[in-house]
Design goal:
CATH class: Alpha Beta
Helix content: 25-40%
Strand content: 25-35%
Structural class: alpha/beta
Low-confidence stretches: 1-14
CATH architecture: 3-Layer(aba) Sandwich
Number of helices: 6
Oligomer: single chain
CATH topology: Rossmann fold
Number of strands: 7
Number of domains: 1
Shape: globular
């Protein structure tokens, strides 16, 4: 009896592993860190349908990367480079190795989001798309710094649960809200003058 319960419990907690949806790595299965909640395939597909014209040849930042599913999807669809921020990057690095991503295509920043954002901003790094899927709401200090990472005409996309309050980013304008099941994508860009 114990054996059956643990098997069911493990199936419920892990779900099916995410796959790359399109591009050169289409169909490849990704490893997910224990306890992570990857963006659903449906929501990821909707996100990239929206971003399709913003990906090719661009720089992408996957903040709170987990397995790297979103940043890897961007690379698979033609992004020039993805930077992944993840304190525990073991599964992410396994995924990058399995996909044989070229070293010029990615960087893994092994740090918490606050430290990584400060470090990237200090280095003068900018990105065409910044994607953030925080496990909890973004702290105010981090919210103030993210805008410094956007390239001119860049876009910030924040994923929250459907019942979370709208995030705020000083100096950025809210462009759009798109709900997909339990996920909501909030799009931000340069403040309108």
């Amino acid at each position: 009896m114990k054996r059956k319960a643990s098997t069911v419990g493990s199936r419920l907690s892990t779900g099916s592993p995410p796959r790359i949806l399109a591009g050169r790595w289409k169909g490849r299965v990704l490893q997910v860190p224990r306890g992570a909640r990857p963006t659903s395939s449906r929501a990821r597909e909707a996100l990239f349908d929206i971003l399709q014209d913003s990906i090719g040849g661009r720089r992408f930042l996957d903040l709170f990367a987990g397995s790297g599913a979103v940043g890897l999807e961007a690379l698979s669809r033609g992004a020039r480079a993805s930077v992944f921020v993840e304190a525990d990057s073991r599964e992410l690095e396994r995924n990058l190795a399995a996909l044989e991503a070229g070293p010029a295509e990615f960087e893994v920043v092994r740090a918490d989001a606050r430290t990584a954002v400060s470090s990237l901003a200090h280095r003068g790094e900018t990105f065409d798309v910044v994607f953030a899927d925080p496990p909890y709401s973004l702290e105010r200090a981090l919210s103030k710094r993210i805008g410094a990472l956007l390239a001119p005409a860049g876009m910030l996309v924040v994923q929250t649960d459907s019942n979370a309050p709208p995030p705020e980013f000083p100096g950025l304008s809210h462009l759009e809200r798109r709900p997909y099941g339990r996920n909501v994508f909030w799009f931000f860009g340069e403040a309108r003058r």
